[in-house]
Every structure is written in C-alpha cells, then in structure tokens.
C-alpha cells in the first residue's frame, strides 16, 4: 500500500504499524509516518509523544517490536546504525553526535574517508572534498579546524555536510534550532531549502510553531505514542495543530483536589544567572501547586537548581516564610525547607547501589540517629511510613534502589524529601519516563501534599500534566518569565503560544 | 502496569535475607577461611610458628600499615585515595627527630608526630575537597613533596638517640605478649568499625562513594566529608609514624617506603571496591591478619623478601580474581 502525497509523488520512506514497548511503557503504538522527496515533514507532538523513539528506530538504534519500514516501497530493516546510514537515512540531533577533538573534515568523513595508498586515509583529498561540501551549503568554515573550537550552529553545518557526504536521501533534524541564535536559525532555513531542492526528504522535529509554518510542507502529529493525523501544511491552522497535540479532556485524568491557598511561603525576586536565566521573580503560597511550563532549554531546571543551592544566582533574593535566606549549598536549602526532586533520577536522584531505606533516610539521618550513631529500627520505621504513603512496590526495604522501576525510584526520591518535612517541594519533570500506574500515584500524592498545606513547584513539559495539576502556571522562554496564567486563561493554546513566542493576536 | 492498583499499600518487609546468611556468604567469611588455612599451613610447616612470642613479633609486620589501612579504607569507599601516607610518615618522623634533637619531651614528640599528620592531611584535603582536584593526582604530588622535605632536612643522615621512654610506643608491651601496637590495632579496628558501620558519618561515606552527585542533590555536604576523611588519614599516618619511629629508634628519609601500596593492598584484599562504594572494616582487619601471617610464615621458612613480595602480589590477584572466575565458570 503506497500513500500518495498531494503532489503525486511516492514517499521515499514509509513506516507502517510501528510499535515499540519498553518495560512498563508503550512508547509507540502502531504509528505511521511518510517522508516525501523534496519535502519537509514536521513531526509534531508533546514531550513523550514518541518523537525521539521514532527517530531512534529510523536511525537503527532501536528495533521496532512490530511494523514495517519501507524505502522506495521495498521493505527493509535497520538492525544497526550503519544499516540505516547505508540506506541513506541520517540524523542531525539537538546535541550533534560529532567528535570535538577531530577536525571538521574528519568529522564529515568519519567512517567513509577517501582512502589512498596502503588503505591509509587520503587527508588531502578528504579536506578538498570537505571544502566542496561546505561550500555547497554555503558554510564558511575551515575544514582543518578542530570541532571543539566551533559554536553549536557551525557544528550543525558540519553535521549537515556529513549528511550530504554519505549521500543521504532522508535527513532527520531533531530540534535543530534549539540552541541557535536568530540569525543562525535563518541560515538554517536557507539550508533546508537547499536540501529540499536537492530532493532530500526531511523530517523536521520542532516545538516551535513559527518555524514549522515557515519551512514545513507536511505535518504528522503524534500523541502519547499514537498517530493522530497527517496532511499538508497548507490546509491547517495553528490552533488545529495545538488541538491535535493536546487533544484530550484534561481534567478527567488528573485528580487535582481543591486546596486552600494560604500565605506566601517562598518569595523569589530578581534571580539572575550570567548565562541561564534573567530576572526571575515569583511568589509561592501554602497549598499551591505552581506549574512551570516552557520548552526544553527555557531555563526552568536551572532556576530550580539555583533555588536548591546547586548553582548560585549572580543576583537576586529569596525569602522563605518572610525570612531572607542565602542558599549557598543544598544542605542550606534543605535547612530552609526547600527540597528538589531532580529530572535526572538516575544520576541526581537515587543513590543506586544502596538500599531503599538508606536512600530515604539520607537527609533525615539527624532525626533517625542518636548522638551521631545510626538507629536502624528508626530508619526502617521512617522509611515504612513514607514509602507506604506513596504506595511503593519493592521486594524489601533493604533492596537496592537501582533494581526498582523508574516510577518506584521516583517514589523513593519523593519519600526521601517528604521525610524531611519540607515547606517547599520542587518536582522537576516528576513523571517523565515513568509508567502510567506510578504516574497516577505521583499525581495523586502531589495533590494530597498541596491539600496538606505544602507549597509545590512542578516543572513540566507535558501540557496536560501542567493544566491538570497546577493552580497557576508560569511560562518561561529563553531564560525569562514569558507569561503567567491562572484559572480561565490556563489553556493549552495560551501555554504553547507563550512558550514558543507567538503573539496573542496571531 | 495498567492493572488496577491495590486498595491498600502492600506490606514490604524490612529485609529478605537474614543477617546470618549474609554474613556467611560475605567476602569477609571467605577471607577468614583463607586466613585460617594460612594459619594451619604455617603451623604445620614450621614448629616455631605457634610460639606466642613469635606470633606477637609477627604482628609488627602489619600493625602500623593496618592503622593507615583503616583510614584508607574509608577514603577508598568514599571514592578517593591517598598515596602520600608513607611520605607523611617520613615527614612526621623527621619533625619528631628535629624536635628530639632540640630536646623536646616525649609527649611533645608524640603530639608533633600526630600534628604533622593532621597538617599534611589538611593540605591534601584542602586541595581535593576545596579546589576539586582529583585525589590520585594531588596525593602523588604530595607524596614527593612530603618525602622531599625529609630528604632536604636529613640528606644522607639520620636522627638517632630517641629517649628510651619514647621506645615504648613501638617496643613496649601492654600485657604479657600483647604489644602496645597490637593493642592500638585492636582499639582502632573497633573505633573505625564503629565509625564506618554505626554512625551517620560512615553512612555518608558509602553514599558519596556510590554517587557523589546524588549525595549533593540530597543535601549532603560532600566536600566536608571528603576533607574530614583526608584529615583522618593524615592523623592515622601520624600515629603510624610515632609507632614506627619508636620501634626503629631512628629516622631516615627513606622510612616507611612502600607503605602506601601495602596499605592499599590490605584495603583491596579486605574486599573494599577500588572504585568506591563498598567494603568493610572487618574485611580490612582480616586482610591485615592474612598479610601478616603470610609474611611471617614465609619468613620462618627463610623465604627471601623478593619472593615474599611476589607471593603477596599473587595472593592479592588470586583472592580478587577467584570469586569472579568462580562466577564465570558457573554461567
């Protein structure tokens, strides 16, 4: 079965019924995707919709459980990244996978460098060909310079030159503009036009609607690992796409209980950081869940880590219950009653290799011990109390945290902080990558905490989660607070607009 | 995972395996068997082995190194290392020798020896915890630095003529065959065992060794713990310096050469992961006994020192490799 685009050409690459399951999560459920020569197809979806999974399948990093991949109508498999490359599929990632210590030419030709006598690399020819490739995309770069001396935009150009060097037919661009300046983005658009003119099929993944409308010819929307819709960009409005992306009755899924919003607990004023964020100020109240929404890289986690004492703001003040607090270390943050559940659970959250109870009691050892000596009975009692409230699933409290599922590891991290009886709990992408059952438990518990008077900050990139759980939403864009929404104004459309920077009147 | 969640939270037991079964399957138990085997083999090989005074003499083979190994074990569990310990002994001994020449009393010599160790440990700790430098690089540097100072002070010479009362720390007996050093070894084994296994501080050592980033994200003052560990190692090196200087009755700049590797060997043989995060003090105690028994037994059989070091090296590799080979064979 061959789909036909409006222009009548057949797709270069066609995916049908692709399903991919990870333990506890169905990342993709029978999705389809078609890419046409000389056209840019935008893949649209929230974080967690399955976009990165499909990229990994296309580049041979993951194998689909079910479904078919066809190139020019011929069914094919990509058992390895090399196989995908040989079939002409190449990807340019957000963080380009290139080698900092090698030169531009070496990066372009790594793995398929022109060979000279004795099978050695013919450096002169390689540099010459690299120059041609770079010139063909209008990139003014020295082929002999080492990659680490280049900026992100230039690295993208190298990645694109590399894609051309292997004569790719399908180019995947995964949020290529995320780290680029305004001018660099426009140069990238020009380049995309050139690639189109050469007949490449381009899969363009982006959260930014302005650029999707600017360069895409077609769109495909995924939601929660499902295919939602596809079509030409011509006949679609921004609002339609947002609707397709979000597309579910939000408040049925999220069990937000009404909580009485009380006095201010945390007041942040004028927090600045030389590179990450600028002039952040907000007030958080008892019983409130304050959502922080924004694109990846908008500076949300960086603000939270500054509040938690991981980094220090260059300017700004923070008050907890009216008292000015200078937070220079995480220990001081915990003393001030501010705790942080990090996004990077495996590295920053749980101490893998140590048992559950030692993880839970870690910041509370002062309470479970006597004169500095451990009291295991107290530790088990405290762990039991908090893990029970979170409905932890584990074989024993002595089990290595590293053996638990992602959702249960998250519960251990949350239990660890609740045991310190904090005033403010900051949850950074609290349900990212965890299974649906644990997700519901975490949401339910968050709601209960707010009802008990705790002040909660929830950083999330999932619109339904933000809208379902938060009483108020602050949207950040490029390190600044872009907008704040309460009540009626908290709509998916408003959040997305503020995050990507579309004017209200558009 | 979408199955209906349980109405009430499930009961989770505290532990699945009993303490006894853990102990029996532990590395320490295996090491104890090795120690017993070496003891029996030695007793059969030489009629002089079982003499209490001979055994007591043998303990000097390991007591000073073991004092350092206890602190080193905590440092390695926390993911750091200190290779300057033997150089600290040399510097502390040199300081004591200089003070002795100047006529300082015995209590001042002891204080200066331990104080020098403390200062050296503080210097290492400042560079590692304060400036974030890697400990292996820092302590290779201070290894040359500390011993270098000793060489500048002493040249080819030596401090001799320590007062007889000072000799008690290395040559004196507390009761019957039990020397001061052996008693100190036993006391320190208990002190460090309690510190590592029964206190909050010891818990933090394991946490940092397993994941220092997560420790920091859990409100642990990671650098403070690291600094204290370097202080402790410095102090124990100072204590070892007092014992060793007292036992030898002299100070040469080459004193205690190679002690750092023997201390690390003891720690690793004792089951401490060189990558940090796991290990125990009882393991190090048994490892110290094993090494002491092996060197003493071989000495009775008139095995030369070079061969002895080959055997100790082989023992280390063998004991570390055997469990892995065993696991591979069963697969």
From TrEMBL, chain A:
Q: What is this protein called?
A: Sugar ABC transporter ATP-binding protein
Q: What is the lineage of its organism?
A: Bacteria, Pseudomonadati, Pseudomonadota, Alphaproteobacteria, Rhodobacterales
The membrane topology noted for this protein in its Swiss-Prot or TrEMBL record is: Peripheral membrane protein
Q: For this protein, what is any one GO molecular function term? A: ATP binding
Where does it reside?
Cell membrane
Arranged from A to Z, the UniProt key words for this protein are: ATP-binding, Cell membrane, Membrane, Nucleotide-binding, Repeat, Sugar transport, Translocase, Transport
Q: Does the keyword Transferase apply?
A: no
| InterPro entries registered for this protein in UniProt | AAA+_ATPase, ABC_carbohydrate_import_ATPase, ABC_transporter-like_ATP-bd, ABC_transporter-like_CS, P-loop_NTPase
Task: List cellular component terms (GO).
Answer: plasma membrane
- Tell me the superkingdom of the source: Bacteria
Provide an example Pfam family for this protein: ABC_tran
| Residues covered by the ABC transporter domain | 13-249, 261-503
Output the CDD domains linked to this UniProt entry: ABC_Carb_Monos_I, ABC_Carb_Monos_II
SUPFAM superfamilies recorded for this chain?
A: P-loop containing nucleoside triphosphate hydrolases
Which Gene3D superfamilies would you find in this protein's record?
P-loop containing nucleotide triphosphate hydrolases
UniProtKB/TrEMBL annotation, chain B:
Biological role stated in the UniProt entry: Part of the ABC transporter complex LsrABCD involved in autoinducer 2 (AI-2) import. Probably responsible for the translocation of the substrate across the membrane.
- Signal peptide interval: none
Q: Which Gene Ontology molecular-function terms are recorded?
A: transmembrane transporter activity
Q: How does it sit in the membrane?
A: Multi-pass membrane protein
Query: Which species is the source of this protein?
Result: Fuscibacter oryzae
Query: Where found?
Result: Cell membrane
Q: What lineage does the source organism belong to? A: Bacteria, Pseudomonadati, Pseudomonadota, Alphaproteobacteria, Rhodobacterales
UniProtKB keywords:
Cell inner membrane, Cell membrane, Membrane, Transmembrane, Transmembrane helix, Transport
Q: Which GO terms describe its cellular component?
A: plasma membrane
Q: Which InterPro entries match?
A: ABC_transp_permease
Transmembrane regions listed in the UniProt entry: 29-50, 62-79, 85-114, 126-153, 173-196, 227-249, 306-327
Q: Where is this protein primarily located?
A: membrane
Q: What is this protein called?
A: Autoinducer 2 import system permease protein LsrD
């Amino acid at each position: 079965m061959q789909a036909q685009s409006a222009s009548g050409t057949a797709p270069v690459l066609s995916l049908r019924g692709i399903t991919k399951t990870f333990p506890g999560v169905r990342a993709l459920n029978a999705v389809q995707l078609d890419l046409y020569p000389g056209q840019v197809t935008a893949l649209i979806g929230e974080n967690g919709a399955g976009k990165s999974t499909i990229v990994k399948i296309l580049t041979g990093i993951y194998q689909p459980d079910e479904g078919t991949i066809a190139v020019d109508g011929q069914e094919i498999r990509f058992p390895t990244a090399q196989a995908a490359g040989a079939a002409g599929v190449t990807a340019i990632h957000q963080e380009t996978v290139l080698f900092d210590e090698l030169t531009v030419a070496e990066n372009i030709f790594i793995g398929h460098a022109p060979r000279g006598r004795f099978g050695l690399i013919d450096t002169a020819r390689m540099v010459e060909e690299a120059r041609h490739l770079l010139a063909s995309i209008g990139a003014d770069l020295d082929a002999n310079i080492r990659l680490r001396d280049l900026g992100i935009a230039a690295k993208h150009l190298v990645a694109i030159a590399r894609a051309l060097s292997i004569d790719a037919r399908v180019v995947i661009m995964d949020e290529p503009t995320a780290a680029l300046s305004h001018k660099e983005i426009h140069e990238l658009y020009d380049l995309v036009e050139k690639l189109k003119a050469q007949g490449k099929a381009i899969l363009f993944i982006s959260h930014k609607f302005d650029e999707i409308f600017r360069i895409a010819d077609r769109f495909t929307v995924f939601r929660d690992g499902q295919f939602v819709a596809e079509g030409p960009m011509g006949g679609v409005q921004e609002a339609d796409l947002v609707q397709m992306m979000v597309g579910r009755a939000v408040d049925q899924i999220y069990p937000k209980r009404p909580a009485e919003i009380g006095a201010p607990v945390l007041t942040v004023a004028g927090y600045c950081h030389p590179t990450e964020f600028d002039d952040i100020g907000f007030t958080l109240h008892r019983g409130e869940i304050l959502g922080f929404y924004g694109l990846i890289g908008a500076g949300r986690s960086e603000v939270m880590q500054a509040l938690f004492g991981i980094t220090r703001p260059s300017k700004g003040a923070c008050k907890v219950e009216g008292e000015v607090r200078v937070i220079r270390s995480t220990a001081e943050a915990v003393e001030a009653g501010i705790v942080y559940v990090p996004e990077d659970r495996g590295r920053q959250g749980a101490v893998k290799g140590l048992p559950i109870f030692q993880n839970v009691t870690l910041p509370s050892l002062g309470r479970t011990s006597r004169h500095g000596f451990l009291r295991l009975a107290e530790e088990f009692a405290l762990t039991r109390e908090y893990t029970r409230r979170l409905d932890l699933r584990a074989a024993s409290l002595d089990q290595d945290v590293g053996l638990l599922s992602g959702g249960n590891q998250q519960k251990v991290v949350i239990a660890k902080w609740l045991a310190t009886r904090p005033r403010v709990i900051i949850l950074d992408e609290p349900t990212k990558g965890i299974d649906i059952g644990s997700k519901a438990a975490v949401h339910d518990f968050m709601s209960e905490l707010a009802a008990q008077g705790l002040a909660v900050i929830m950083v999330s990139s999932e619109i339904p989660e933000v809208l379902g759980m938060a009483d108020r939403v602050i949207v950040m864009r490029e390190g600044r607070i872009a907008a704040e929404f309460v009540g009626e104004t908290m709509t998916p459309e408003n959040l997305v607009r503020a995050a990507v920077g579309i004017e209200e009147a558009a | 995972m979408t199955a209906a969640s349980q109405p009430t939270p499930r009961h989770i037991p505290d532990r699945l395996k009993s303490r006894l079964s853990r102990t029996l399957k532990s590395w320490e138990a295996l090491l104890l068997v090795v120690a017993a085997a070496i003891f029996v083999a030695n007793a059969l090989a030489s009629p002089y082995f079982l003499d209490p005074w001979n055994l007591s003499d043998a303990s000097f083979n390991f007591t000073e190194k073991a004092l350092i190994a206890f602190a080193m074990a905590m440092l390695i569990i926390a993911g750091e290392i200190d290779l300057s310990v033997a150089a600290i002994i040399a510097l502390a001994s040199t300081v004591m020798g200089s003070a002795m020449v100047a006529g300082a009393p015995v209590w001042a010599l002891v204080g200066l020896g331990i104080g020098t160790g403390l200062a050296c440990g503080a210097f290492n700790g400042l560079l590692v915890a304060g400036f974030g430098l890697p400990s292996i690089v820092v302590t290779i540097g201070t290894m040359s630095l500390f011993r270098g100072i000793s060489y500048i002070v002493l040249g080819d010479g030596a401090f001799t003529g320590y007062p007889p009362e000072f000799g008690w720390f290395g040559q004196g007996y507390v009761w019957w065959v039990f020397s001061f050093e052996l008693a100190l070894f036993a006391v320190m084994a208990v002190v460090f065992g309690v510190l590592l296994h029964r206190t909050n501080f010891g818990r933090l050592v394991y946490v940092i060794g397993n994941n220092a980033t997560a420790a920091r994200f859990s409100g642990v003052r990671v650098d403070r713990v690291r600094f204290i560990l370097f202080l402790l190692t410095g102090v124990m090196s100072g204590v070892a310096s007092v014992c060793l200087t007292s036992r030898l009755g002299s100070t040469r700049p080459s004193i205690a050469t190679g002690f750092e590797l023997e201390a690390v060997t003891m720690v690793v043989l004792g089951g401490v992961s060189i990558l940090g995060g796991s290990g125990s003090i009882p393991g190090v105690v048994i490892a110290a006994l094993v090494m002491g028994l092996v060197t003493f037994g071989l000495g009775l059989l008139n095995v030369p020192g070079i061969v002895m070091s080959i055997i100790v090296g082989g023992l280390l590799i063998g004991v570390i490799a055997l469990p892995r080979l065993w696991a591979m064979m069963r697969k």
